Amino acid sequence: MGTADLQAPGGTDPRSVIARPKLLGLLSFLAAAPGAFQRRDTLTGLFWGELSQERARGALRQSLYYLRQFLGEGVVVTRGDEEVGLDGDLFWCDVAAFEGAVDRGAQEEALELYSGDLLQGFYVPGAPGFERWLDERRDELRERARVAAWELAQGAENPANAARWARRALKLAPLDEELVRQVIELLAGVGDRSGAVREYDAFASRMAEELELEPAPETRALIEAIRSRELVGDDPAAMAAASAESAAASAVVPAEPAGRLVGTRPFRLGLIAGAALVVGLGIVWAFSSMGGGPGLDPTRVVVAAFENRTGDPELDPLGRMAADWVTEGLGWIDVVDVVPSTSGLTARPDLADAASSGPADIQALAEATRAGTVVAGAYYRSGTNIEFQAQVVDARNGELLTAVAPVGGSIEFPGAVVDSLRRRVVGTVARVFDSRLADPSAGGEPPSLEAYREYLEGRDHFYREPAQMHQAQMRQALTFFQRAVALDSTFLEPRFFVVLAHVNLGEWQAADSNAQLLVPHRPRMTAAQGHLLDYLLAHLRGDRRAALEATRAYGGLDAGVEALRANRPREAIDILASVDIADFYYKWLDLMQAYHAVGDYRRELREAEGGRGVFPDRMRVLNAEVRALAALGRVDEVMQRLDESVLLPPEDGLVPGYLMKRAAAELRAHGHREASFEALDRAFEWLRSRPAEEAESGFHRFEVAEALYMRERWDDARMIFEELAEGPPHINVQGFLGVLAARRGDRETALAIGEGLTGMAAPGDFGRDVYWQACIASLLGDRERAMALLSEAYARGRLFSVLLHRDMDLEPLHDYPPFEDFLRGDG
Fold first, then answer.
1. 717-734: b or e for each residue (b if 16 or more CB lie within 10 Å)?
2. 392 phi, psi to nearest 5 deg
3. Strand partners for 300
4. How far is residue 633 CA from its own chain's centroid?
């Protein structure tokens, strides 16, 4: 209950579990879920649902092994092969103790244990099933605590105790209006009428601030009756008259039409525009606590998702649709720098929803995008009409720059309403930043709501971690985007995402075909969309320089990523140095590579160690730490981290065995050959532990062969590669056979294999065939030809990365000035 806490006897340090959210989540579920035992399939579904069954089971086995090591003998118990639990005699949990006390009727004992919501503030990345369970379990336990507190209040003989427990019950359900009335009546009944009035006033304030509603008529009538008692005293006749008067007043409270909010604001849909200014002032007053400091650019504008205040969750997509369409409209005026909607989502996908539209969320979005100006607002419904309000706010100090006149229309035609909103906001913003401008009319029409719903579903899948590398999830995203295009062929955003999804799936020809379909639409694109199209076309043809130029024009952190890919690591650092791992995870990984590329291993290590504090169970963060430690020659620490890797879940295809091979390559590149072999021996051990079905796959055999090659067991590696070569042609299998021939001095065979590689590179391989030819030339001692081939490979679009400096086939080029210059980059 409350903040997670773990205590163990004998001086055992619990931080090794607390620092790993997935381990602590697993332990907490075993301790706090109803029932003594949990099925293994339930556990793998909650914590490793994105993995295959075999890998999820393996991750669970590793985690249970670690828990057994930490908790000691006998605490983790099993029932048969499929059920896992904790021995209640050896492990105590306040949740179990709380529920036991409630079941025994010991409510006071139970409430002493209830110190807050279950695992307050706790989050397990990449485990949506566990998060759903945790939300439901929190609600269940909170309700049991509320019931226990109310039973104590009702049964208390002392008025003070009754009031204390009643308030405790209300604190656990602060928006339960029926409970509020019961508490008010109880307090009034024990003579604490002023306390009853205070509770009503507090409830009314909560309703206004959180729901923008007023208390129900019966609640208002009740408190008026109690207030009347305070005025007339305890004379029975006077009290009866006051109660009757209050009841009569409540009887004539006019009923609200269905679908309308009850007295929520001094504004009703359909009233004159001037009334909206009252609402606007209320919203901007909430922004007065904002203040982002001098780092925000006042001419950079971000549009927050409009808040849905209709009470109808089916209309949630309109909030994001409105934000996207306003953003697109602002892209047509050149007096402001508009944050593209896709960039905003990449920065803070958690802030993309209309549910995240409070002042703190909007301020966080401004800071994440470095925008000094925010367009924000809300929309309301009255019968068959819908109305939008918007304000333009200075995010640096929370000051209102201007309120936008409300825009309304029929809910049957939301696109028309959103289009009117776009035009009005664009005109208002234009006049804020340049008084010479009239109301501009951005081109195009909003998409249909049906198409936009499909687009939103696709975008949610696309950005849901680890979507960038999760094939099934990316395939789902692609399906939604394709549906959106089919529903509305003029809707450009899903067309861009179709291209991006195909790229992430490795389907380069499909990506290029769809990118070409966007070219005829360029005249109606915003500047940001045009830059994005230029980037996609350049990226798909492997033109790294053009891709970098396009991202520079597009703006944002993507230019840093492209600078690294174009062998400009210092420029990449200049752009990416301020990224926060929690907000820009994948770009933070690129920043780590950039530090490594310029040889700043200590900075890389510092950042990686800090990153592990944020994401202790992310394999790629551990990889960055291992890479830096290996480059610094801290071999013992490298081996310790490799031991830790077996406890972490895979991430985007990176598993412990592959991490160990990367560590081995890095150690070798920095002169630690024997330590490299030790890391490879650990990789072999991990590879041998894989299930039989996986071990028989061609992919697994390739990994084993590559590890044998790195271990300098040339003949063993060659035998597996020759077996693999009997299957479908694969450029990497042939490449390894070529470098093996070069290593044994068979120049003729090596060159023949190298020539056979020409043209084998698939779309998206970007010069891989030429790169293998460069490796063969390097091992044959032809350094000048090797450098010419390397230059050609990268001119064809091969991405620069940390792999280049640790490729053991290029070791003959070390200390060769042209190669050293090539490694340093031109940044």
1. bbebbeebeeeeebbebb
2. -110, 120
3. 337
4. 34
